[in-house]
Amino acid sequence: MKKTLVLIFSLGLVSILLSSCAKKTLKDYAAKHGVKTGVAVAVSDLNNEEHLQIIRENSSIVVAENCMKWESVHPGKTTWNWNEVDRMIEFAEKNKIAVKWHTLFWHNQNPRFLSSLETREQALEVMDEHITTIMTRYKGRISEYDVVNEMFNEDGTMRETIWYKTIGPDYIEHALIKARETDPNAKLFLNEYNNEEQGNKKADAMYEMVKDFVKRGIPIDGVGFQLHLATIYPYNAVAVKSNIRRYADLGLEVSFSEVDVRMPVPPSENSLKTQTKIYSSLAKLAKEEPNVTSFITWGFTDKQSWVPYTFTGYGDALLYNRDLKKKPVYEAVLQEFAKK
Ligand code: G3I
Q: Which CATH number is 25-338's, of 3.20.20.80, 2.60.40.1640, 1.20.810.10, 3.40.50.970?
């Protein structure tokens, strides 16, 4: 009896030691700094165990690359497709991974029936139905929402989306109010690209709008910096930091929501160095700035990235190569999060 007890105790001790020595991953190190790491998940990932294992290893939050967009989830006025969304959420829940909804409203990947909207009343009715149907169905299962995505033009004026044209510029605050009313516990984000550096017209216009929302009590919890960056363009970490800090002063979170750093391919040594510098700087900012709460890459493998289809001659923007192996830039990001 005594020998059995000693054996059980020793086995228990070994398993505790083994688990504590298990190689820490990107998400483990980032979590120590209050940062959730994750990736955008494609529907095809859900059928690929190798992909799912990498997603599990690196993600404490996931976002849908496409299946939660209108054209997929709400393709007709009374047509809803929940299958791919349910599968993704079930995968996340099974692996204790949070889910971010992308995106309730934007100008792209919309179904044809939205173009028939003419009046403010018609558009508000359809907007409210979209919000209440989704956020009621997934109440308590989706931790944060990109409520509106890409609402500005590069010069800081409002993008004239179907929602802007039918409802007016107050469509954004209307969506935020309705979303908060529907699921008070979900975090509400506004998401944008080229909005990361203070001093940029688009970034400053977004900040001024959000500052006004906070002043007027319009519900909002954070802003997404998509951070689709490129080695050929300037990157100003000081301007990014001051932008993060002014959102912190408003009491808001910042999500690094769609990170990838593209470069001309095949990559030169210099491009690889620049890419590593940018990724490491972003990891350092996420680690050091308390209101940066997520570091999400837009996919994880260069084999499956939007970049080459959009920017001919560019690619290699992510942390895993086409053979699903970690690239040196992955190690650089991990080391940055691992540093005290
Ligand atoms: O679903 C259709 C399929 O039926 C058809 O056979 C196929 C070929 O035409 O196209 C499929 O639709 C594609 C869709 O992705 C779903 O795979 C569209 O052509 C394609 O244009 C679309 O691209 C997505 C893009 O958003 C659309 O703007 C990318 O995968 C997705 O990574 C990208 O993600 C956006 C974020 O939502 C917002 N921020 C920028 C980011 C990159 O553009």
A: 3.20.20.80
Cis peptide before 103 (omega within 30 of 0): yes
Please give the pLDDT value at position 24: 84
Give me ligand 1 centre to Cα 308, in Å. 12
Task: Classify residue 302 by its DSSP letter.
Answer: G
Q: Indicate the domain borders of the chain.
A: 25-338
Taking only the tens place, the pLDDT of each residue in 48-103 is 999 999 999 999 999 999 999 999 999 999 999 999 999 999 999 999 999 999 99
pLDDT-derived band at 10, boundaries 50, 70, 90:
low
Residue 81 beta carbon below 6 angstroms from any ligand 1 atom:
no
Catalytic residue list contains 71? no
pLDDT, tens digit, 9 for 90 and up, residues 121-175: 999 999 999 999 999 999 999 999 999 999 999 999 999 999 999 999 999 999 9
- The dihedrals phi and psi of 272, each to the nearest 5 degrees, come to -65, -40
Per-residue pLDDT of 221-233, as tens digits, reads 999 999 999 999 9
* Nearest CA, atom 23, ligand 1: 306
Token pair of 116 as six digits: 């028939």
* Calpha distance 286→297 (Å, rounded): 13
Nearest atom of ligand 1 to the alpha carbon of 149: 38
Ligand 1 centroid to Cα of residue 226, in Å, is: 16
- Residue 218, both tokens: 């319009």
